[in-house]
Design brief:
mainly alpha; 10 helices; 0% strand; globular
């Protein structure tokens, strides 16, 4: 329970924790940032780590002169790309083994083929949009690997999505994170960065399930 409480507090007060870490450990903060982004995007068992809010706060700390922007942004960009590539590789390797292919009652060959076709046709934009969706960004590359999306296509969209996500949010934090109004409402902004994308993802899933049910009934 203490570990869960720490993670919740870290997510909701990531600015305070990062500032304290910088003051205590200095340059080791860059290793911490790389690790958090890599684990959050690369391991399906750690989807609850901060992503959007972390990038924004890091940008704000860079704007305040506490962290070097090019170094932090470059390391987090590399972590985001490598994380998704790792997640994709895990899905590509373990997906068929988990289902045991046609010999398992849990494997639906038709559903697998449909998933593969979907990711080949629409997976690129899914990979990019998922970067801004908590939890979903952790599972999207894994599912792409399970569905055997072409690695070259996945890699291209992975890089594009990572650049937009990392550079976009850190730049926003750099330019706006230290404004008085933003500082006064930082906790609300962190909540918004967590809740709003989550609500959009839930709404999208609801619409997809409703459309699927309607198509099945037709």
């Amino acid at each position: 329970m203490e570990l869960i409480a720490f993670f919740i507090d870290f997510i909701l007060h990531v600015d305070q924790h990062l500032m304290a870490f910088v003051q205590t450990y200095g340059a080791w903060v860059y290793a911490l940032l790389f690790l958090i982004i890599f684990v959050e995007t690369g391991l399906v068992v750690m989807p609850f780590l901060p992503g959007d809010s972390l990038l924004f706060i890091v940008g704000a700390l860079c704007g305040a002169g506490l962290i070097d922007y090019p170094l932090a942004a470059g390391l987090m960009l590399a972590a985001a790309i490598l994380g998704d590539q790792t997640n994709y590789t895990i899905g590509r390797y373990f997906g068929p083994k988990v289902f045991q292919w046609e010999n398992s009652r849990f494997f639906n060959k038709n559903a697998f083929n449909q998933a593969h076709a979907f990711y080949e046709r629409y997976g690129g934009i899914t990979i990019i949009i998922a970067r801004f969706m908590p939890f979903i960004r952790t599972f999207a590359p894994f599912v792409a690997g399970v569905a055997e999306m072409t690695r070259s296509k996945f890699t291209a969209y992975n890089v594009v999505g990572a650049i937009i996500w990392v550079i976009g949010l850190t730049a926003a934090g750099y330019w706006f994170g230290n404004l008085p109004w933003v500082q006064a409402n930082l906790s609300k902004i962190i909540w918004a960065l967590i809740i709003v994308p989550g609500l959009i993802a839930i709404f999208g899933a609801w619409r997809a399930s409703r459309n699927a049910a309607r198509d099945a009934a037709a």
